[in-house]
Amino acid sequence: xxxxxxxxxxxxxxxxxxxxxxxxxQPAAKAATPAxxxxxxxxxxxxxxxVKKGVGITTANFDTSVDPCTDFFQYANGSWIKNxxxxxxxxxxxxxNELADRNNAILRNLLETAAKTPGAAGxxxxxxxxxxxxxxxxxxxxxxxxxxxxxxxxxIKSIKTLGDLQKVLAHHQVIGTGALFNLGVxxxxxxxxxxxxxxxxxxxxxxxxxxxxxxxxxxxMVRGEYRKYLTQIFKLSGESxxxxxxxxxxxxxxxxxxxxxxxxxxxxxxxxxxxxxxSVAALSKQAPNFNWALQLQEIKLGTAKEIIVGQPKFLxxxxxxxxxxxxxxxxxxxxxxxxxxxxGTLPMAYTQxxxxxxxxxxxxxxxxxxxxxxxxxxxxxxxxxxxxxxxxEKAFTPAAKKRAQELVQNLQLxxxxxxxxxxxxxxxxxxxxxxxxxxxxxxxxxxxxWKDYSALKVERSSYAANVLRAREWGTLDNSSKFGKxxxxxxxxxxxxxxxxxxxxxxxxxxxxxxxxxxPFYDPNADDAVNYGGIGAVIGHEITHGFDDQGRLYDAQGNxxxxxxxxxxxxxxxxxxxxxxxxxxxxxxxxxxxxxKLTMGENIADIGGLNIAYGAFKMxxxxxxxxxxxxxxx
Length: 633
Description:
- The structure is a single chain.
- The chain is α/β, with parallel strands linked by helices.
- It has two domains: 356 residues, Collagenase (Catalytic Domain); 199 residues, Neutral endopeptidase, domain 2.
- The chain has 24 helices and seven strands.
- The longest helix has 25 residues.
- About 7% of the residues have low confidence.
């Protein structure tokens, strides 16, 4: 997956400029229909901005006052950065965001058209249009208040015993609030042809365990603001000031104990340490206060005999808490998880409270994104492949897919050559690496088999009810995989997503139509633009197959060693250098990059650019030394 945001000029410029620098100089490091309800007042979507075809390098983005051999990043991006301040509703800005904005203009037009002319009941057009229309109907949302969640709130309020609590916790797995722990179906890491049941840690309201436990000023501030947020949502639900404050403190105390038992983000990157397969009976001994039969039955997995437990210590502590924490505190916790999870479906006061803490306090956003963007994103999350079918018809041609396939093949060839050239890897490991590379499944644009949403009911009458049904459908759709062969046609991202990913269990690289757009990719663009843009992305995902996590999976996607001990040692030496280099970077005063946490992305970024450049060197434009805008390879 790509997680960096940089101007496309950096990557594209590298291919035309970087080779002109001396070898000892390094550039600076630096996602029957009822009558239409009135939608919230919003300007009609403007047409998507035109995109110049056959584009070359955008030299206007350069800062030519800088020597590229001294600070290549500033040279390639300086003017772009100066002319593109981060918008108030964003917490970062780069080429990914620019492309997402252009895609959003197309997607908004599709959604507004579907909302106005939804078509026959049960069609993708109807479901997508009604989901969006319901989300935009702020008058109905404000009028309904908490009514759409009354049944869920009553369920929580009715808890009297541990048995009652078990039932509600199991139900929260179905409606996706993230309460206490995760339970679901996924590919078995060690038997990649089979699905397995997984259980693991969850339940925190803050994004990182350290925010509960560290004593630095930032963490203390976040904890204080989080308690204020919890107090606010309890008060919005009708609680007195005293009860709201008491319940907020109870929720925080419970989550802090969960945080203490949770693994950190670096620990979660070790697939071996997070693979603990055991019988349901054995898990019942380790975490005895859970009714595992009930938990599994609630999500239609009652036939499961084994569970792969990610974090046994966490589930043991969660089991203890089930007995030692009072029912009233559990009710407060579940209510907080429900209200937080559904804040975006409720009246504006809840949405604003959620924004003020999670977006403003935690991430620095200055303004909330317009409602249409938020509901667009929610529609993509709930009906991504129904929505995606409409998108690819509009924005992704067969010719674009064909050219992208060619680029991937060229990048794979360049990667293969690079494996052969490694002077530290033994022939035995090289053979296995080449076997894995040849076994890659490449998915481009959109799925060959679309998801079937026929069982999902979508209506305009209630946005929150649509979200509830969509989550329930998603949970049961996931559970329905258990006992079947692994579906290797399934996608993990929706077609409009501006991102890409490598899946080690499938040994696949996937590039949605959303990222196969300018400025990253244009079938009519110069080779340098495509290799420097989408080429670097393709190389990034290929490299993930061989990074510190990907290398642990074989050609069939099994968590299984295929490296000689000698080569594993050599790999560790080289990744240690990357760890130390990145861990020394301090983007803010006293804040350093965690090189171990970012290792996979660092390796993929470095490898992606190098592989893209290697592939570009085999392209006609490079071989012919063609000049574009005064730049040569």
